[in-house]
Amino acid sequence: MSTTLGTTSAVAINDVSVRFRSKRAETTAIEQVSLDVAPGEFVSIVGPSGCGKSTLLKLVSGLLRPSSGSVTLLGEQVRGPRHDIGFVFQRAALLEWRSARRNILLQAEMRGMSSAEAGRRADELIEMTGLTGFENALPHELSGGMQQRVALCRALLHQPRVLLMDEPFGALDALTREQMNVELHRVWRETGTTVLLVTHSIAESVYLANRVIVLTQRPALVKEVIDVELPGERDYSATMARPEFAAATARIRDLLGAVTGHD
């Protein structure tokens, strides 16, 4: 199934299949998936565990090559690891001996960015994400939510036009996860970055996104694309109470029930 937004896509996945071969068998993880993501769009990806959600992000980042089909990022076909993206994982993966600010600046060191430019950008992100006052704290002195904010700042330091997020808040408690949802939505609106988010949380997928892509069980196919009809600015509690939110989450639950075999 294809979702086409035009020829100026930030990300275009075109009829992609991924097959893994072992000595005993061949496994198809993704089968003929097509998806276009517009510049500045926030797209969530949900589906059963192990269906290939993270595999899609690896394809976009160039960490994995498709068995067939093609992936285009910012107008160029992806043929290997891309360094012009940001990637946030479930674990913050901070260096324990470096402060929050120095963990953020690790991105600049790896990319050879100007130290003055990187410092200004780090300070902007620290303020944007509510880390002011914790710049010199070591990772063990930060809460899980604060550690993920540092990881988000690190991923955004070089101002990537595309940000990939693989279940970034899955290890957080429910309240902290809600707070991070609010922070991420605000940061996305302020930066205009294109975001692809993999999540197991239906509520999170709808609250954050313009569209939600629902995948089937492996081999992954696009089951349905849900357009999220919510205001651009989203107060968390008010958004949860809106009928559009309830309708979207109910539809996704129905689809996931259908693909997983549960009611």
From TrEMBL:
Signal sequence extent: none
PROSITE patterns documented for this protein: ABC_TRANSPORTER_1, ABC_TRANSPORTER_2
Ranges of residues in domain ABC transporter: 11-242
Pfam families given in the database record: ABC_tran
Keyword Transmembrane recorded: no
Keywords, sorted A to Z: ATP-binding, Nucleotide-binding, Transport
GO MF annotation, one: ATP binding
Keyword Isomerase: no
Name under which the protein is recorded: ABC transporter ATP-binding protein
Source species of the chain: Lentzea flava
